[in-house]
Amino acid sequence: MQIAKAFDAEVTGVCSTRNIELVHSIGADDVIDYTKRDFTLESNRYDVVFDAVGNHSLTAFRRVLRPKGTFLAPGAGSGKLLGPAKQQLKTTLLSPFVPQTMKAVNDKPNQDLDELRDLIEAEKVVPVVDRVFSLDQAPAALRYLEGGRARGKVVVGVSPS
User: What pLDDT is stored for residue 14 in this prediction?
Assistant: First the structure.
């Protein structure tokens, strides 16, 4: 969201009621509370949908994309066999057969890290940190993440000896 705003995009965030203020604070022009509205059933159309959660079908996402829009699946979601990769696999398989661009976003080294560093240094992108745990609290940090209630990144700090 912050990167899109840094490039002057109009951004709509989708979150629960408890995160509306946070999502506005990091740049959303509009925020949809998914506990009250399903944005995939509304008439708004988007140029880009970045699915960080994986809780809608590809059909639902395609419905809210403009005809030449782009869907990005970073590996969110769940599934018994493939886990988070399920949405990425489905996205890749569907891509050749639809007019929209469907991309699986992979966690691999990126040539744009210098540009990202510049955005962070210019404070156009500010990390949102929910909690910081010490290394000996790593199991508690994992339990906290698994609870699905983190509002930003969870950091496990390692102090130099």
Answer: 94
Strand ranges for 36-152 from DSSP E:
46-50, 65-73, 101-104, 129-134
Strands 12-15, 30-33: pairing is parallel
Residues 68 and 95 in one domain: yes
In a domain, 114, yes or no: yes
Q: Are residues 107 and 45 in the same domain?
A: yes
Q: What percent of the residues of the chain are helix, what percent strand, and what percent coil, each to the nearest 5?
A: 35, 25, 40
Q: How many helices (H) and strands (E) does the chain have?
A: 6, 7
Is position 19 within any domain? no
Q: What is the CATH number of the domain that holds 76?
A: 3.40.50.720
pLDDT at 151: 86
CA nearest 71: which of 85, 84, 52, 86? 52
Give 110's pLDDT tier (boundaries 50, 70, 90): low
The percent of residues in the chain predicted with pLDDT above 70, rounded, is 82
Please state whether beta strands 129-134 and 101-104 pair in parallel, antiparallel, or not at all (unpaired). unpaired
* Cα angle for residues 125, 54, 148 (degrees, 5° grid): 70
- Structural domain count of the chain: 2
40 against 93, higher pLDDT? 40
